[in-house]
Design goal:
By secondary structure, this protein is mainly alpha-helical. The chain contains 14 helices and four strands.
Length: about 350
């Protein structure tokens, strides 16, 4: 997440902690003489976080920072063994998918291979919710660790590389119902905005940093599961998953291609001449949505030659259009996604 030259004011209404707090708040920290922006002009209005929490997030990065140890890649052996034993996929399916994928075949030939394993996970195996959550968490951990380590280590274990690509396409199709889903539904029904109040607790508060050297731990070498651990969630993956689960109507593209298209279109939206004044700086939610719809229609119209299949669905299928509109809005409204 890079710094934003023009950005000088930020309103925070969500929990920030750790590196995400540093990345989010540091986007303001850049002067721009040609724009008349000085570092002393920066302003953050935080509705949610406590001063101590922000200090704790910034302290580890204030001075020299080093890793306390190396990431143990042997955990990939253990993760792969656990995933293999679940019988969600067959080794022949992984081999077939990878061969076709690197041969550059059409997505219509790849999807059925992934769908077999996904259907096995979602229905045929009759797995408990906790078992499903455990498998998906471990699959994501395998993809995350291998994806980071593959850029700095030789491809000595070909089976890891093959499973990595197979899981990247399988994970978005794994349906897991968690207690969090039920809690969110209950929470939405219990919220009464008429009781929401505003109170200023801190103004122009200076946070002092710890000047001592800091050590950070490497990636967690222990396989995570559904019991007693939090799943690392990729916000964009969650948006794409939600979009596909509810309104997938034959848009023949892989999750990775969807990610690229979503990000590209969101950047076009933010670059639109009306975006800053009519959307980003608009506090009227109704008018903001109307302006966003007009900008999205304009962007899609200009991109229709490049994304003809997507544009046809967008223009002709009302349910697809509404789901796509909502997904793009979630992307634009989520500060953690804007720089992906």
């Amino acid at each position: 997440m890079s710094e934003q030259t023009k950005l000088c004011t930020m309103y925070v209404d969500k929990k920030l902690q750790g590196v995400m707090a540093v990345q989010a708040l540091s986007r303001l920290n850049r002067s721009a003489n040609k724009l008349g922006k000085k570092t002393e002009d920066l302003f953050i209005l935080d509705f949610f976080n406590q001063v101590d929490d922000i200090k704790a997030s910034f302290d580890p990065f204030y001075t020299s920072t080093s890793l306390s140890g190396a990431t143990d890649i042997n955990v990939l052996h253990e993760l792969k063994g656990t995933l293999d034993e679940a019988a969600v996929y067959e080794s022949s399916e992984v081999e077939l998918f990878v061969k076709k994928y690197f041969d550059g075949v059409d997505a219509q030939q790849l999807s059925p291979i992934i769908d077999v394993a996904a259907n096995r996970f979602n229905k045929e195996l009759d797995m408990e919710d906790d078992e499903k959550a455990d498998f998906k968490i471990k699959a994501k951990q395998f993809v995350k660790i291998y994806g980071q380590m593959a850029s700095i280590m030789p491809y000595e274990v070909l089976d890891w590389e093959k499973l990595f690509w197979f899981l990247k396409f399988l994970i978005p199709k794994l349906i897991v119902k968690t207690k969090e889903d039920e809690l969110i539904d209950a929470l939405l029904e219990s919220v009464d905005l008429s009781t929401y109040g505003l109170e200023r607790t801190k103004l122009n508060y200076t946070i002092g940093m710890d000047g001592s050297l800091t050590e950070l731990d490497p990636l967690n070498p222990n396989p995570r599961g559904a019991h007693g651990s939090d799943e690392d969630k990729d916000p964009l993956d969650e948006i794409i998953r939600s979009f596909n689960d509810r309104w997938f109507h034959g848009w023949d593209t892989t999750p990775e291609d969807q990610r690229v298209k979503f990000v590209t279109l969101s950047k076009h939206i933010q670059a639109h001449p009306d975006y800053q004044t009519k959307v980003a700086g608009n506090n009227d939610s109704q008018n903001r949505d109307l302006a966003f719809k007009k900008i999205l229609d304009d962007v899609m119209s200009k991109q229709r030659k490049k994304e003809l299949d997507l544009y046809k669905l967008y223009a002709k299928d009302e349910s697809f259009y509404q789901a796509f509109f909502d997904s793009m809005k979630r992307m634009i409204d989520n500060p953690n996604l804007r720089q992906l």
